[in-house]
TrEMBL record:
UniProtKB keywords: Magnesium, Metal-binding, Transferase
Organism from which the protein derives: mine drainage metagenome
Protein name per the record: Putative Octaprenyl-diphosphate synthase (Octaprenyl pyrophosphate synthetase) (OPP synthetase)
Enzyme class: transferase
Molecular function terms, GO-annotated: metal ion binding; prenyltransferase activity
SUPFAM superfamilies, alphabetized: Terpenoid synthases
PROSITE patterns: POLYPRENYL_SYNTHASE_2 (PS00444)
InterPro entries per record: Isoprenoid_synthase_dom_sf, Polyprenyl_synt, Polyprenyl_synt_CS
Gene3D superfamilies: Farnesyl Diphosphate Synthase
This enzyme's EC code(s): 2.5.1.-
Example GO biological process: isoprenoid biosynthetic process
Keyword Coiled coil: no
Length: 326
């Protein structure tokens, strides 16, 4: 039997994702809220994410010889857990726009959005449990542990990110630890699950996890860069929203680690205000970041992490990672 293509896998993935989250039934508000978030049925089509985590899982699994069915429910579980985190993150960050339309809490209210996110978390692990039929009990248990550990690290990273908002300074090492949990942990789990689905040995599983984590760090730095210099048409989110909320992103942390200058003092003084920034202040910070060459610094940091990925990934996996970060 020939190996599945990625296109075949993604088509099967979209069908299984819809099945696992449940089709919207009239009068069922929970299912309606979940369907709205994913853009299913009457709430679609809408611009969806790039499915990066499922793609990494599939590419890892197929490279190591796993059949599609062995990896399918794990890929669905990772994507649902990712979306649970997005729902809660939008509430915590007070973001009203995602993929170019109102976020779940903006549409249904905070209480319903929290509840829908909690349901997504439960559905994620129920989906992963279905993989036991293809993986066997021990491998399925390892998969569940992997995803739970990623969830724990995500929550830890998010707690740090929220706490940073009331800080006047954040060390570079603290920032890296935060994104290592909030973002990189699930990317690491996606690749690790791909290896588990292929019945890989412990060394290969660890290498897969390391690749995913390194990719996740580069991904978050790029996301931080787009949060300052991107455009809403591409990101589907309000540009410079992170600056307005005084989020400690890579450009800010890097800028404040530079030698003293007028531009650095502008960033430091504005971020020390202890409150949300108005449009004038946001633009002042962005100009200061430009003067400090913070954007090229982001690009260098991404390139350095891409270079490290070559130690872990095969050619196809590395090319996919590199292309997705451009």
């Amino acid at each position: 039997m020939s190996a599945p293509t990625l296109d075949e896998a993604l088509r099967s993935f979209e069908r299984r994702l819809c099945e696992r989250t449940g089709e919207h039934r009239s009068g069922d508000l929970l299912r309606e809220a979940i369907a709205y978030h994913f853009g299913f049925g009457e709430f679609g089509p809408t611009r969806v994410g790039k499915r990066l985590r499922p793609q990494l899982l599939f590419r890892t699994a197929f490279h190591l010889g796993a059949p599609l069915e062995a990896a399918l429910d794990a890929a669905v579980a990772v994507e649902i857990l990712h979306n649970y985190s997005l729902v809660h993150d939008d509430i915590e960050d007070r973001d009203e726009l995602r993929h170019g339309r109102p976020t779940l809490w903006a549409r249904y209210g905070v209480a319903q959005a929290i509840n829908a996110g909690d349901a997504m978390c439960a559905i994620s692990f129920l989906a992963l449990a279905q993989s036991e039929a293809h993986l066997g009990g021990q491998a399925a248990l390892s998969a569940v542990r992997t995803l739970h550990e990623a969830q724990r690290l995500m929550c830890d990273g998010q707690a740090r990110d929220i706490a940073f908002e009331s800080r006047e300074a954040v060390a570079f090492e603290e920032y890296l630890e935060m994104i290592g949990g909030k973002t990189a942990a699930l990317f690491g789990a996606a690749c690790e699950l791909g290896a588990i689905c292929a019945a890989a040995d412990a060394s290969t599983v660890e290498r897969a996890r390391a690749f995913g984590r390194a990719y996740g760090m580069a991904f978050q730095i790029r996301d931080d860069m787009l949060g300052v210099w991107g455009n809403e048409a591409d990101t589907g989110k309000r540009v410079a929203g992170d600056l307005a909320r005084r989020k400690w992103s890579f450009p800010i942390v890097w800028a404040l680690a530079q030698p003293d200058s007028a531009a650095r003092r502008t960033v430091a003084a504005t971020y020390a205000s202890g409150r949300s920034l108005d449009l004038h202040e946001v633009e002042a910070v962005r100009r200061a970041l430009d003067e400090l060459a913070a954007r090229p610094a982001c690009e260098r940091a991404i390139a350095q992490r891409l270079e490290s990925l070559q130690r872990f990934g095969d050619g196809d996996l590395y090319r996919f990672a590199a292309d997705s970060l451009r």
